Amino acid sequence: MTQREKDKGLETLQVWRRAMDFAVKVCRTILPRFPEDEKWALTAQFRRSVQSVPANIAEGYGRYSFQEGLRFGYIARGSLEEVYTQLTLAFELGYLNKVEYDVLVDELQNLRHLLNGYLAYLKKRQHEVRDSDVEAEYLVDPIPNP
Q1: What percent of the chain is modeled with pLDDT above 70?
Q2: pLDDT tens across 12-45, in order?
Q3: Domain around 109
Q4: Residue 138 has pLDDT above 80, yes or no
Q5: How many C-beta atoms surround the C-beta of residue 5 within 10 A?
Q6: Distance from the CA of 50 to the CA of which of 26, 31, 43, 126 falls in 20 to 30 A?
Q7: Is residue 5 situated within a structural domain?
Q8: Distance (Å, whole) CA 109 – CA 103
Q9: Cβ-defined contacts of 102-109 (< 8 Å, 24+)
Q10: Cα 105 from Cα 96, distance rounded (Å)
Q11: Residues 6+ apart with CB under 8 A from 48
């Protein structure tokens, strides 16, 4: 990773970029087509959960701790499963056709795969750092003892 990529931070994280793209797609192209009577029900919950995925990835990333990265990554994964449930419900209620549903499910499965890979990476790096007693770039400098 180049210094320029390091300076960009979160924007270099592929799982976050893909989660953002997915959230934007759902919010811009899918949710506006739901019936008005779903505005405060399925639409609102769907919007919150799809936006929660990249937000929690970002929060974990910003904590500069493997443990916090994992914790918020697991929350993001839970939100992604919630998105899958709402997507399936929208399809079964007739708000999405089969082609739209299949495309979105494929994107969601790819995002799930990326997120699981990111979590595996964090776990591996956490153990490597713990085993070698070496500070990693991902961690902040330790607070000196007075």
Answers
A1: 82
A2: 899 999 999 999 999 999 999 999 999 899 999 9
A3: 13-131
A4: no
A5: 10
A6: 126
A7: no
A8: 10
A9: 104/25, 104/26, 104/30, 107/22, 107/25, 108/22, 108/80, 108/83, 108/84
A10: 12
A11: none
Looking at residue 7, its pLDDT comes to 57
Of 114, 95, 46, whose CA–CA distance to 106 is shortest?
114
Q: Could you give the CA distance from residue 75 to residue 23 in angstroms, rounded to a whole number?
A: 16
Q: How many domains does one find in the chain? A: 1
Q: Measured between alpha carbons, how far is 47 from 26 in angstroms, rounded to an integer? A: 8
What's the CATH number where 69 sits? 1.20.1440.60
Residue with tokens 């500069």: 64
Q: H or E stretch including 50?
A: helix 42-62
Crossing angle for the helix pair 98-132 and 42-62, to the nearest 10 degrees: 20
User: How crowded is the C-beta side of 16, counted as CA atoms within 13 Å?
Assistant: 17
